[in-house]
Design goal:
Mean pLDDT: 81
Largest sheet: 3 strands, antiparallel
Low-confidence stretches: none
Helix content: 25-40%
Distance between the termini: 74 Å
Structural class: alpha+beta
Number of strands: 5
Radius of gyration: 25 Å
Amino acid sequence: MKVKFIGQGGRSDPPSITMFGVTFPLNKWTECGDEKTLAKLSGNSHFLVGEDQAKAHTDAKKAEALAKAREVKAAKTQTAPDPEWEDLDGDGQDSSD
């Protein structure tokens, strides 16, 4: 089964890491057949193990980007309060009347 070292996603990630006698280059799929190693790495947030986990990781990134885009769009479409309207006493009525 293939394993991918994804690091933390920052600039400080090493170009590769060696664990359990296997060297994993950053963001490259590496073949790993040892079941114990696969079990340990599948619980490590810095690794993706197999296609299912890779798809889940990609789907999560897409969902995160979509949520951020919706947030930005909502912020852009909000209307600013009317500067001519004043409710100084808090009763919901314009105070200029």
